[in-house]
């Protein structure tokens, strides 16, 4: 009985589990070194209550290079169009792998879910 109560207390202190969300990225019309428009991103499993998405991109082959990202309002869309936000686009000397991390945020800025997608460029 003590173990069950301890487990229940620990679970309640940890907070609710984040929802399952997934994302995929297609470079679309992104041009090497000359493009500051975000690529198209498809989303699924975005939780109810999401009002904004926070998107970040990192170069896994050059993690110290800051590409940034952006926040966009979310109104139930299954995808973000090319150019939904501005960032420093890819300009690798050779093929590099990039990771996009998308956080679903509620109206108070609390993270409801997180998804990531990796994509090589070019």
UniProtKB/TrEMBL annotation:
InterPro entries per UniProt = PEBP (IPR008914), PEBP-like_sf (IPR036610)
Entry keyword set: Signal
The keyword Signal is assigned to this record: yes
Q: Matching Pfam families, A to Z?
A: PBP
Q: Signal peptide position in this chain?
A: 1-19
What name does UniProt use for this protein? Answer: Phosphatidylethanolamine-binding protein (PEBP) family uncharacterized protein
Q: Which organism is it from?
A: Neorhizobium huautlense
Which taxonomic lineage does the organism of this UniProt entry have? Bacteria, Pseudomonadati, Pseudomonadota, Alphaproteobacteria, Hyphomicrobiales
